[in-house]
Design goal:
By secondary structure, the chain is α/β, with parallel strands linked by helices. The protein has one domain: Aldolase class I (TIM Barrel). It has 13 helices and eight strands. Helix 2 runs antiparallel to helix 11, helix 4 runs parallel beside helix 6 and helix 6 runs parallel beside helix 7. The longest helix is centred in the middle third of the chain and has 16 residues. The mean pLDDT is 96. The structure holds coenzyme A (COA) and zinc ion.
């Protein structure tokens, strides 16, 4: 991580936010969104999903979106992959990170990627092996993503020991970082503390990120709990779009704009200019007039005389 920021925020709207929509979000508009958010200071964006276009037609333009995103200076471009074929597509295009997805809940894994969890671990191992054959400059970082890790709308609660066990398996198979996801918004701060502490104790220095949905209004409280555990990377989506078509009851991700405001108000630098970020919502509003856009900050605006974290940090440091 660069030293001018304290916490990485990763925009997942172009993937998680769009995957459930039946209407196609035009490719140029996806790129306008990605460019605008990158220039507001967001440094990592999950821009697409390398899944069969027959299954999710929204991502039929994956190659074009990735090419456009890779042309943006300094942006880390991420693609979701469910299997080796997806990883090969990502490598071919030159993405910086592959976000491999499997679910800790057995039922959700079967519904989502049609695999037993052990088979998904094998898929992950194959991807890691394939990546090891590439020269370093062509090798994307591999994120081991654990979906439905903190609850599942098919199974209810998910044992923390299963989360720990699959985190360990992904780490051992070659993950460069892990991402623990509350796909359907079942988590609460107590569970977040328990699960993240267990995972982080298991995988040592491997970075562990968090992906929360705000289904029951605890999204930002869960962020605060994860921060206490040492998590320094969070997924979110602008205006809280999001959901999973293979997980009933899944609603939007935590709102990127509100997440940046929370982190900033805690004195943690994200590198994001909040006013510029809020302005990007216009792209969503014009393309998705029928979809509700969430966000407390967008509704209320920044407090009068609000000082961003970076300026407050400098003032405190001044003699
Ligand atoms: N990208 C493009 N095509 C792919 C692919 C990928 N990542 N993976 C498989 N395919 C193709 C195969 O080549 C095959 O094509 P063919 O019918 O022309 O021969 C076809 O899809 C079926 O392949 P198979 O390996 O049998 O896949 P499957 O039917 O068992 O489905 C997944 C498995 C993982 C591909 C599918 O369940 C999936 O994409 N799940 C993710 C769903 C999702 O987006 N969830 C939300 C995000 S978490
Ligand atoms: Zn999600």
């Amino acid at each position: 991580m660069t030293t001018d920021i304290d916490v990485v925020v990763c925009e997942v709207g172009p993937r998680d936010g769009l995957q459930m929509l039946s209407q196609f979000f035009p490719t140029e508009e996806k790129l306008a969104w990605i460019r605008a958010e990158a220039s507001a200071g967001v440094r990592e964006i999950e821009v697409t999903s390398f899944v069969p276009p027959k299954l999710v037609p929204q991502f039929v333009d994956a190659a074009e979106v990735v090419r456009g995103a890779l042309a943006i200076d300094g942006l880390i471009v991420i693609g979701l992959v469910p299997n080796l074929k997806g990883a090969e597509r990502g490598v071919e295009l030159g993405v910086h990170k592959l976000n491999f997805v499997m679910s800790v809940s057995r039922t959700h894994n079967l519904k989502n990627v049609r695999r037993e969890r052990e088979d998904s671990i094998e898929d992950f191992r194959r991807i890691a092996e394939m990546l090891r054959t590439l020269p370093a400059e062509r090798r994307p970082r591999l994120i081991g993503g654990l979906s439905s890790a903190l609850g599942c709308s098919y199974e209810g609660s998910v044992p923390v020991d299963d989360v720990r066990r699959y985190a360990s398996a992904l780490a051992e198979a070659g993950a460069d970082e892990l991402l623990v996801a509350d796909t359907v918004g079942y988590a609460d701060p107590l569970l977040v503390r328990t699960a993240f502490k267990a995972v982080m104790a298991e995988v040592g220095s491997l970075p562990v990120g968090a992906h929360f949905h705000d289904t029951r209004g605890l999204g930002l409280a869960n962020v605060a709990a994860a921060l206490e555990c040492g998590v320094r990377r969070f997924d979110a989506s602008l205006a809280g779009l999001g959901g999973c078509q293979f997980a009933p009851g899944a609603t939007g991700n935590i709102v990127m704009d509100d997440l940046c405001f929370l982190l900033d108000s805690m004195g943690l630098r994200t590198g994001v200019d909040i006013d510029r970020l809020l302005a990007v919502r216009e792209i969503l509003a014009r393309n998705l007039p029928q979809i509700p856009l969430y966000g407390a900050l967008a509704r209320a605006g920044l407090p009068r005389n609000y000082l961003p974290a970076a300026e407050r940090v400098q003032r405190t440091a001044a003699p």
